[in-house]
């Protein structure tokens, strides 16, 4: 770009006075000081085509006294150049005090095009560049746009990008601007190393950070793309991880990144100074507030003597104590923790100091950036409002709640001074993000076969914080649909109301001879009792019926009168011939078990039940836990109307513990009891059905009481009592990159299911129970006279089932997958085994 500049007045005279050499800019015309002193009588403009003369003249404003002095001329010249409208501006003197402004206008951009871009769309690049079609062309702006495009590509992990602007001249002082882009290959993170880590292996620390090494499956994610902001955030994640595990002096002193031109990627190295590990020596409480007993806050402390010093536990304790003090009327109380290290004993003496803080009130809460979410959806996450005492713990809790909503990309709450010294203004800065989701899910398991699901969901419906989801499932053995709706704040209280409408169809398969159809509706209420304790209340009403495959349907028709004896002695039922050439009659095709046939005769059954679930969760990570306890206790009472009555109780507890060398131990305990309530008999469908969900190595519905009549389909009957215990050791494959997401497992399972209390006789068909202790047992039934054993012959032995096995756990980009191979050690005589099991699925 060429600009003509003119030196005027005082500057030139000063340079001459001091004898300094003057080098005039190219194209500049130097005017003598005497000429500069002449009064400007008029301003003429030359060379302009689009810009009006008066617009150009307006930049030259007379000073005091109405004179256009040299300072005003210089200011006008500078202002014209800064408009970006001109390639060149020159100022000359004419006769009679005339000031001549000669301009060369910048061309107009006809169109802007991008070539070579495949990873980033034209629309996104157009929005980012400053040069616009029908706007003024500026070389400085084009250069800036070139750098901006390159930066966008670098942010997406392509550091080899090159951007070349091309200017194509067009008639009428117009140009076309074309950015030619060579995107280059994605620049990933080739290696992640840790220096100074002795307490934790590099393999374990890679699980803490978000940055990932490039691998064969990296194209499915973006964690391996080098992002300096993400690397910096990883430093804090590593530090927080050490602080949680007792390393109070830890420092992540550097995160070094180096580009490797041979590998065309970055090597990232985190330098760590661990310090020593501390345990809690003592916990004390002190206060300077009159009439306040600090020891009453002891129950709100999550810090225990002898435990590892955990900064997160200290922070949560401070928050809970400060909130409790506020509830007791000490609104300005501030809890400040202090720790006195004993370097020899490796302990920390923790002291919680409760003092009176400054008396500051909240004047306003200003919310910015919520273009979609309603203000009240944000404000209800605060436990304080305008006029309340300022409490930092409550503000931090509100910020955490807003982040957990997952409605926003970023959430930041800051304070600004209010109208007086004791007033503050809370500023809530938000950045909205998409909350809708459309997914197509696919999966396969040895239990349900192939399965596909299409779902549409919205987490922030209409910006009101509502959740809605509709899904349709179609699979080899399972089909159905569901509609869900959740109001997280019922009547402005922190109570979640959920409504579920569903229809499910389970088809007969190799594990069960019958199918079921279920249509139900379930409202539920959820309460958060504590951060680690929640309660759900629910009501369920559903209609259920049994269906039979075609090869069994004719064999199970029920006569309108008389006894039903499916043998050659009863040759026809409802006009259907039951005899066959082998003399077995209906048994030649198989006979559904008595409880199944009885349920089929009952038709559609209505179940109405009240229930609750109490959940205690201290897991460090819900998706990939390595430490903590998860306990679910649930009870359901059926009999609030309907055709069924029972009380069903179940307990499920999982305890994870990190062991040495990245090994994680898991103890899993299960148990359940089904009790009859009132005079209504229990159905077979109400019983617990167990298989690999209790003891691996067994088929679905493969454990527990079973119909053993060889002429029946030998269906699993289920039980009213079960228990299970499992020990599992999960370990990484250290020889594989962490990013592959593979872990191995070895385990031992034991459990039992027993005490069938469903129907055993049927007066309508004249069938009676035949126990194994009679002359009609599974081993002595005479196949030539099947009619002699037409009742229910079942096994209900209380054998402990056990197995050992190995598993492969893969946190794959396609979703969580697990492969298990288990060998039963002890089993019931009629149990069914399945040594290999696979399950998994994904959304895409």
Walkthrough of the structure:
It is built from 13 helices and 35 strands. It has 844 residues and is α+β, with helices and mostly antiparallel strands. Strands 16-17-18-19-20-21-22-25-26-27-28-30-31-33-34-35 form a 16-stranded antiparallel β-barrel. Strand 14 (408-417) and strand 15 (423-432) form a beta hairpin. The radius of gyration is 39 Å and the shape is elongated. The two termini are 51 Å apart.
Explain briefly what this protein structure is:
This protein is an alpha+beta fold and 844 residues long. Helix content is 15%, strand content 40%. Strands 16-17-18-19-20-21-22-25-26-27-28-30-31-33-34-35 form a 16-stranded antiparallel β-barrel.
Order of strands, main sheet, comes to 16-17-18-19-20-21-22-25-26-27-28-30-31-33-34-35
For this entry, what is the oligomeric state of its chains? single chain
The structure class reads: alpha+beta
How many β-strand runs? 35
Describe the largest sheet: 16 strands, antiparallel, barrel
- Count of DSSP H/I helices: 13
Shape: elongated
Distance from N terminus to C terminus (CA atoms, Å) equals 51 Å
| Uncertain residue ranges | 1-37, 557-589, 771-788
Q: Round the Cα radius of gyration to an integer and report it.
A: 39 Å
What is the mean pLDDT?
A: 82
């Amino acid at each position: 770009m060429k600009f003509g500049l003119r030196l005027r007045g005082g500057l030139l005279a000063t340079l001459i006075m001091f004898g300094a050499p003057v080098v005039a800019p190219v194209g500049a015309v130097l005017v003598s000081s005497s000429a500069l002193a002449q009064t400007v009588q008029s301003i003429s403009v030359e060379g302009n085509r689009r810009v009006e003369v008066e617009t150009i003249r307006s930049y030259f404003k007379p000073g005091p006294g109405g004179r256009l002095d040299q300072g005003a001329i210089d200011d006008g010249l500078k202002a014209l150049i800064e408009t970006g409208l001109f390639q060149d501006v020159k100022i000359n003197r004419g006769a009679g005090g005339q000031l001549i402004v000669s301009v060369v206008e910048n061309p107009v951009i006809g169109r802007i095009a991008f070539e070579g871009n495949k990873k980033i769309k034209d629309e996104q690049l157009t929005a980012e560049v400053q040069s616009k079609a029908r706007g003024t062309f500026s070389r400085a702006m084009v250069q800036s746009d070139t750098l901006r495009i390159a930066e966008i590509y670098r942010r997406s992990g392509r550091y080899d990008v090159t951007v070349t602007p091309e200017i194509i001249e067009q008639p009428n002082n117009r140009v076309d601007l074309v950015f030619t882009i060579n995107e280059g290959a994605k620049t990933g993170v080739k290696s992640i190393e840790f220096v100074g880590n002795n307490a934790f292996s590099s393999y374990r620390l890679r699980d803490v950070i978000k940055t990932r090494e490039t691998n064969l499956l990296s194209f499915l994610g973006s964690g391996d793309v080098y992002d300096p902001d993400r690397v910096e955030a990883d430093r804090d994640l590593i530090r927080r991880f050490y602080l949680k595990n007792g390393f109070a002096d830890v420092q992540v002193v550097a995160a070094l990144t180096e580009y490797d031109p041979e590998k065309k990627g970055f090597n990232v190295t985190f330098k760590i100074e661990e310090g020593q590990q501390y345990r809690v020596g003592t916990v004390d409480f002190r206060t300077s507030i009159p009439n306040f007993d600090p020891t009453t806050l002891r129950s709100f402390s999550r810090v225990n003597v002898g435990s590892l010093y955990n900064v997160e536990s200290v922070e949560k304790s401070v928050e809970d104590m400060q909130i409790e003090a506020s509830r007791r009327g000490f609104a300005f109380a501030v809890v400040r923790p202090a720790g006195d290290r004993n370097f020899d004993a490796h302990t920390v003496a923790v002291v919680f100091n409760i003092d009176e803080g400054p008396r500051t009130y909240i004047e306003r809460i200003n919310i910015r950036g919520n273009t979609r979410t309603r203000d009240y959806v944000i404000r209800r996450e605060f436990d304080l409002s305008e006029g309340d005492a300022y409490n930092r713990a409550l503000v931090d809790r509100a910020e955490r709640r807003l982040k957990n909503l997952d409605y926003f990309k970023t959430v930041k709450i800051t304070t600004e001074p209010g109208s007086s010294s004791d007033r503050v203004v809370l500023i809530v800065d938000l950045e909205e993000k998409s909350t809708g989701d459309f997914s197509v899910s696919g999966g396969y398991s040895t239990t349900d076969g192939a399965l596909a699901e299409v779902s549409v969901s919205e987490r922030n419906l209409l910006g009101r914080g509502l959740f809605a989801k509709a899904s349709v499932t179609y699979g080899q053995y399972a089909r159905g649909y569901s509609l869900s709706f959740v109001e997280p704040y019922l009547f402005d209280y922190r109570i979640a109301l959920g409504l579920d409408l569903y229809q499910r169809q389970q088809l007969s398969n190799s594990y069960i001879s019958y199918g079921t159809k279920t249509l139900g509706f379930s409202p539920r209420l959820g309460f958060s009792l504590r951060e680690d304790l929640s309660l759900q209340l629910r009501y369920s009403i559903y209609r259920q019926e049994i269906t039979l495959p075609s090869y069994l349907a004719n064999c199970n028709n029920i006569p309108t009168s008389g006894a039903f004896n499916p043998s050659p002695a009863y040759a026809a039922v409802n006009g259907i011939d039951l005899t066959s050439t082998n003399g077995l009659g209906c048994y030649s095709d198989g006979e559904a078990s008595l409880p199944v046939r009885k349920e089929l005769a009952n038709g559609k059954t209505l179940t109405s039940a009240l229930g609750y679930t109490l959940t205690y969760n201290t897991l460090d990570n819900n998706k990939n836990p390595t430490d903590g306890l998860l306990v679910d206790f649930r009870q359901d009472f059926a009999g609030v109307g309907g055709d069924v009555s029972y009380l069903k109780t179940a307990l499920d507890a999982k305890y994870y513990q990190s062991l040495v060398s990245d090994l994680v131990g898991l103890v899993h305990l299960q148990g359940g009891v089904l009790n009859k309530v009132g005079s209504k008999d229990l159905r077979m469908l109400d019983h617990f059905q167990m298989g690999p969900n209790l003891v691996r190595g067994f088929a679905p519905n493969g454990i527990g009481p079973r119909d053993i009549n060889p002429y029946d389909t030998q269906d699993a009957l289920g039980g009213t009592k079960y228990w299970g215990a499992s020990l599992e050791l999960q370990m990484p494959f250290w020889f594989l990159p962490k990013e592959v997401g593979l872990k191995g497992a070895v385990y031992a399972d034991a459990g039992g299911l027993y005490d069938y209390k469903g129907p055993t006789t049927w007066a309508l068909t004249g069938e009676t129970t035949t126990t194994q202790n009679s002359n009609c047992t599974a081993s002595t039934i005479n196949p030539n006279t099947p009619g002699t054993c037409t009742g229910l012959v079942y096994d209900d032995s209380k054998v402990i089932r056990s197995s050992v096995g190995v598993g492969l756990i893969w946190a794959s980009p396609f979703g969580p997958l697990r492969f298990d191979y288990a060998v039963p050690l002890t089993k019931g005589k009629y149990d069914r085994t399945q040594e290999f099991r696979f399950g998994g699925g994904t959304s895409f």
